[in-house]
Design goal:
single chain; alpha+beta; two-stranded parallel sheet; two-stranded antiparallel sheet; about 35% helix
Length: about 200
Amino acid sequence: ATFGYLPGLKATPYDPAKAKALLTEAGIQPGQEITFSLHTESFGSLPSAPQVLEAIAGNLEAVGFKVTREPYDTAAYLAAWRSGKQPAVFYGPSSLPDDGGETLEGWFSSTAVWSSGYINVPEYDKVFKAQLGATDLKVREKMLQDWAKMEDERRMALPLFWCNTAYAVGPRVKSWHPAVSSAYHYNLNTMELAK
């Protein structure tokens, strides 16, 4: 439903067997106990949040984790975050615009608000400015799809974060810290990359 969406991009396949192998390689044995904090209320950008979160918990169990579900209503969830009591496995409610140009501006331009300008690719800025002036929707869509192809090849965005939320650990990230007294779950300015 996103304007400028590029069909045909290679998706990461659902492969529980490979996930189990990677976890074993990382020293995590089947039956590892984890808690998963679930937001129990739906909201505008994700009306089926409880069902989606239950599906994620089920996926964690499918790869060998023993999951203890910790349900939170909105007030308790945000209070826990703001008091610095972030769980190990959590869900960060948010949404993204359904227009590729808005995504490009907010995340991938050199003046992006959400990524704090850590992406600085002149070609991205050029596409962003050009698509603003495009009056033909097909032309604008093609511009955004060309940008999506560039990003798919370059992978400038950190794949371990979504809406300021760390959701995986990998060798690219040296350290990160949850945000405290903030509306956001994570402050990208405090992130340290390994390289």
